[in-house]
Design goal:
195 residues, mainly alpha, 0% strand, elongated
Length: 195
């Protein structure tokens, strides 16, 4: 094999390697964008759930003690989720432990305040039925948004663990995305078709 043939093979191998690295980096960039978009969607749904919980607390449908507890938990979740800058909304570190605890606290408080399926049925039949339905819908969307976000994070983590991604440092300085772990289990009485 002559020098020119070996150079041609080396240039061809380099071109193929660069093309594969470019495709891998592009895929990783798309996955990071998907994680950021799903985190923003999850954040929006959590804010909607908190505002709907405040609306339920103010509707007069709950007993006064439960209304105060629900409003307090909703405000705590809103305060913990206050975004200080647009860049903070694009972070890859999930929601953060304080926000996850606050959102889980809101879930537990709502579950306790709503009580049994019979009390939820009474709330739905009463004048605040629309608020209860709105809460059920937003809570369900929170559950879906968290699932979509965690799946996007899992896909990104799988790609970032590939040998060539680590070898060629294709992720750059982007932090490893984290899943969002919080209690968002919908009470059976609020499930679509449940209770």
């Amino acid at each position: 094999m002559t020098w020119s043939e070996m150079a041609l093979v080396a240039v061809g191998a380099l071109a193929i390697g660069l093309m594969l690295a470019w495709r891998g980096a592009s895929r990783l960039d798309r996955l990071h964008r998907k994680v950021a978009a799903s985190r923003i969607a999850l954040d929006a749904e959590l804010v909607r759930r908190a505002s709907t919980a405040v609306e339920l607390a103010a509707s007069g449908a709950l007993d006064p003690a439960s209304a105060v507890l629900v409003a307090d938990a909703a405000y705590a979740a809103s305060d913990a989720g206050a975004v200080t800058s647009p860049a903070a909304a694009l972070k890859m570190d999930g929601l953060g432990p304080d926000r996850e605890r606050a959102e889980s606290g809101l879930t537990g408080t709502l579950r306790e305040a709503l009580g049994s399926p019979e009390s939820v049925a009474l709330l739905r039949a009463g004048p605040s039925g629309e608020v209860v339905e709105a809460l059920a819908a937003t809570w369900y969307r929170v559950t879906l948004a968290r699932r979509f976000h965690n799946e996007a994070v899992a896909q990104t983590q799988r790609v970032r663990r590939l040998w060539y991604v680590r070898l060629f440092y294709l992720a750059g300085r982007a932090p490893m995305p984290r899943t969002v772990e919080l209690d968002d289990a919908l009470p059976h009485a609020l499930e679509m078709g449940g209770g």
